[in-house]
Specification:
Helices cover 41% and strands 18% of the residues. It is an alpha/beta fold. Helix 3 runs parallel beside helix 4.
């Protein structure tokens, strides 16, 4: 799909869906400007040499996904002060899964709770994960930030309700559909920044001169009915 865009001679590519999509765009062209959203570290992923001075044909927004993991577990621990075990849901196919798991493990160690990592990358596995939480004696669930989980947020929220599992999510979109609580970056703000950068490039700006943005405001959202 990225190669198709290059053959169509587009003037700028804006990506969503995380590092895999941004990586595909990068592989397709070293000339066409790309404005990305990155859930990981754009420097470590090789998208840009530095956040302040991207230098090449790529710039965009870093979502600080991994950096927010400890805060989500901390909030869930405050919500469930008597919980001795918490589960962390991750997608094993996510390119950032290793860093995500490490951040969860460290946050659980600091808070003194047992952590169970559960994995799902399709709808059937989501069903299996929630069925297993009772046997794991996990009192609550931290849902990892992942494009697949975001696309299946209705299913995730329904499963959490059916199994009576308090869960914290990456953004308000989960809470709007009935999820209990979320903490993270406003995706509306992120994509507005992407659009702003795309507009600047279309007006002649060099993407290499536009520093990679990072969110400075984060939302804590609670669904009072679910609570």
């Amino acid at each position: 799909m990225a190669a198709d865009l290059i053959r169509a001679h587009v003037e700028v590519i804006a990506t969503s869906g995380g590092d895999v999509v941004a990586g595909a765009a990068k592989a397709a062209t070293a000339a066409t400007p790309i404005v990305f959203t990155s859930g990981g570290d754009p420097v470590a992923r090789g998208f840009v040499p530095s956040l302040a001075r991207p230098g090449g044909n790529m710039t965009g927004v870093s979502l600080l996904v991994i950096e927010l993991v400890p805060k989500r577990l901390e909030i869930l621990r405050e919500l469930m002060p008597n919980a001795t075990a918490i589960a962390g849901l991750v997608n094993p196919k996510n390119s950032n899964v290793g860093r995500n798991v490490a951040a969860l493990q460290e946050a659980a160690r600091v808070k003194g709770v047992e952590l169970h990592i559960v994995e799902a990358s399709n709808e059937k596995e989501l069903e299996t994960v929630f069925a297993s939480l009772a046997s794991l004696q996990a009192a609550a669930l931290v849902v990892g930030a992942d494009p697949f989980f975001f696309s299946r947020r209705d299913q995730l929220v329904a499963l959490a309700a059916r199994h009576a599992v308090p869960a914290i999510y990456q953004g308000r979109e989960f809470v709007a559909t009935g999820g209990l609580i979320s903490y993270g970056t406003s995706l509306t703000t992120v994509y507005r920044l992407v659009g702003t950068y795309a507009g600047k490039i279309l007006k002649g700006a060099n993407p290499g001169d536009l520093p990679v943005e990072q969110p400075t405001r984060f939302e804590l959202v609670v669904n009072l009915n679910t609570a």
